[in-house]
Amino acid sequence: MKKKEFKTESKKLMDLMINSIYTNKEVFLREIVSNASDALDKLHYESLTDKKMKVSKDKLEINISIDKDSRKLIISDNGIGMTKEELEKNLGTIAKSGSEDFKENNEHKKDIDIIGQFGVGFYSAFMVASKVEVISKAYGSDDAYIWESEGIDGYTINEGSRDNYGTDVILTIREDSDLENYSIYLEDYEIQTLIKKYSNYITYPIKMEVTHQHLKDKENENDKDEYETVTEVEVINDLVPLWKRKEKDIKAEEYDTFYSDKFFDYEKPIKHIHTKAEGTIEYNALVYIPSHAPFDFYTKEYEKGLQLYSNGVLIMEKCQDLVPDYFSFLKGVVDSSDLPLNISRETIQQNRVLKTIAKSLETKILKELENMRDNEREDYNKFYEAFGMQLKYGVYADYGMNKDKLQDLIMFVSSNDKKLTTLKEYVERMNVDQKEIYYACGESVDKIDLIPQVDAVKSKGFEVLYCKDYVDEFAIKMLGKYADKDFKNVCDDRLELDSKEETEKLNKKNEESKDMFNIMKEAIPEVKDIKFTNKLNNHPVCLSSAGEITVEMEKAMNAIPGVDNVKAEKILEINENHDIASKLAKLYNEDKDALKDYAKILYAQARLIEGLSIENPTEISNLITSIISK
Q1: How far is CA 123 from CA 119, 501, 615, in A?
Q2: 333-356 mean pLDDT
Q3: Residue 1: closest CA among 123, 136, 148, 153
Q4: Are 520 and 599 in contact (CB under 8 A)?
Q5: Helix, strand, or coil here: 166?
Q6: Nearest to 333 by CA among 464, 242, 267
Q7: Do the Cβ atoms of 191 and 208 come closer than 8 Å?
Q8: pTM of the model
């Protein structure tokens, strides 16, 4: 029969289909298997409405075989098959989908889970095949036809032969080149791997001859082990995915095994969330909260996202749009038949369906985390130690757009018992007359505990939240308030713990010492101010911050690549009740040069307490040695 050209008129379009739409050549098998599944679905649905059709769904299947000698990969089904006209219509016109036509023309189309939509998936076969043959016999017909093509030059349709109804897709795999190893698609293990990856949950059995090495029975115990090669036809897909089964029928061990097999993590997850949505948009989801962060979680290389399926067929390995950044630790799968795929089936169109699924999932996960926090606190603490920083990042990111969702999930170590506490729990414990939520920042709980201002606030009977992650203070600043209580950094120079009379007395002393402080500032001009304080108990000196940028924020921001020279406005505070105060007053009257030296030393001490470096340690060392030796 004379070769026909494709009705889409241009070889350029075929070239685009083969070389541009799909980024992974391996998806060709997914597309062909999905088409076979559609053919089986069509036959099944037709038999439900036509009682003359004697079709048993239990006998519907897909078979895969390999002939290495002729380099052929064959995918067969016993589905509805195609007539000569349907071969012409469906395979002779690129982007013509017989599956979509079938669905649109069926009065029960809402109940039909047909995978194929755009009709171009079939042509992905030419990415790996130099020749494609389709032998098909329509159900109820006596005639079979063979469609044959070697690509962009066109196709032929001739009479063929097939014992039963259904379709065979025969791919002649390309010869290997310097750049591509096509022979891999003639290996049993590779085909099985691709089926497991993309088509494991097709609802019909996918059968294939599988070769095993079996240990032969020994006639005598001392005989050497001998093996024999046995080839058996096996079902290589799982048919029904775990997430489509009823939760009450699934054991905890099954959930854990699925997680470890699917995501290669052999530590049990903290929790699984199995949910199903029905209504306008339907989907099934199985989401896991891991027990630990992966090694690359806080690197640029880490990719978030859930696996996205459409009717059991893998569409995306990691769909980032299904989870917000603050839930990027989640692992799991989402399966929906309502997703409008784009023509490559590798990605999905960004539309309200995906956004609706993502929003629904987010709400479900938030509720599960709240339940863990309230009723499974040990598990929640374990989760928070691993991923709490991500939640605090979520509070801070996007200009605080999500802070109201996350503020009751974040926790900080409490000065009361050095255990994690929520903001709500802190506020419930607050003294009646306490107006602010006190917090302190540092590199670790132990170091924060040694900050002089922390000691002072605790001595007044107030609880302090310890912020040991770099993002903590940024999140707190973004929150601004919680339960109408302002946050107050204990290292803020505006921290007020004294009575009105004590404050007035201290202000008077600072005013009287103004000239002395001005002389000291000549030695340490980098400080914004110097003043006496009465909030340090037995500590001689400390640094406090003025303005929005604190000392801890300065350290965190300067640690970011490309950012440097961020400076907090620092105030040197000196304990008015410490012996050093009277020593400074004496030096002011007797030796102003020595007063400047003391100022440098006190400032260096305060910087060390805050975990800041000293710009000229040699000078400070010499000054201390000089004073000691007198």
Answers
A1: 8, 86, 68
A2: 72
A3: 148
A4: yes
A5: strand
A6: 242
A7: yes
A8: 0.78
